[in-house]
């Protein structure tokens, strides 16, 4: 019997292989413009700077820190495997480097969510040996790597965000 089509993993191509490899290693990558006078970081990954249109951009490791910009709690979703996850929090976070990113908030009850709350990246593990929806957090998530395919990549980990831990204790 075949595997059901999944709708939670984005399409990949040869350009995004470094992004997915880094995610499998527990690192979030952004693109940063190297053009004089620009230096803008951007996300989603693309081959040019959306601010100045320069093609002189590079991959850089993000800090993994963000704040919650907005969110919505999804109570119904019929696409596999989302139906098994409801309710879940779909969100936009503002990364410390400036860009905003669509993601999911995990490890936080809905009533505790607040605009501007500090968040930290974590990674949902999609490697075949760990199951389709196990979770690993932040830098401790050192996945199995990203196997490149013909022009694309097998996605082994997807960035999600969790509340940041405060210096005073767990958060």
UniProtKB/TrEMBL annotation:
> Do you know which SUPFAM superfamilies this protein is assigned to?
Nucleic acid-binding proteins (SSF50249)
Q: Which organism is it from?
A: Streptomyces axinellae
**InterPro entries hit by this protein:** ChsH2_C (IPR002878), ChsH2_Znr (IPR022002), NA-bd_OB-fold (IPR012340), Thioester_dehydratase-like (IPR052513)
Q: Where is the ChsH2 rubredoxin-like zinc ribbon domain?
A: 20-58
User: According to the UniProt record, where is the region Disordered?
Assistant: 125-148
Origin organism lineage: Bacteria, Bacillati, Actinomycetota, Actinomycetes, Kitasatosporales
For the ChsH2 C-terminal OB-fold domain, which residue ranges apply?
59-124
- Compositional bias ranges of the Gly residues kind: 139-148
Q: Output compositional bias ranges, type Basic and acidic residues.
A: 125-138
The protein's matches in Gene3D superfamilies, at most eight in alphabetical order, are given as: 6.10.30.10
> Can you say what this protein is called?
OB-fold domain-containing protein
């Amino acid at each position: 019997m075949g595997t059901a089509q999944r709708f939670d993993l984005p399409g990949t191509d040869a350009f995004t292989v470094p992004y997915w490899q880094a995610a499998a290693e527990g690192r979030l990558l952004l693109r940063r413009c190297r053009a004089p006078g620009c230096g803008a970081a951007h996300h989603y990954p693309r081959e040019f700077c959306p601010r100045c249109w320069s093609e002189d951009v590079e991959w850089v490791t993000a800090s993994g820190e963000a704040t919650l910009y907005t969110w919505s709690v999804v109570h119904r979703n019929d696409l596999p495997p989302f139906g098994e996850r409801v309710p879940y929090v779909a969100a936009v976070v503002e990364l410390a480097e400036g860009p905003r990113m669509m993601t999911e908030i995990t490890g936080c009850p809905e009533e505790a969510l607040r605009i501007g709350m500090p968040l930290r990246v974590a990674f949902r593990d999609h490697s075949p040996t760990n199951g389709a929806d196990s979770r690993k957090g932040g830098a401790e998530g050192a996945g199995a790597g990203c196997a490149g395919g013909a022009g694309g990549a097998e996605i082994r980990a997807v960035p999600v965000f969790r509340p940041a831990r405060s210096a005073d204790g767990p958060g």
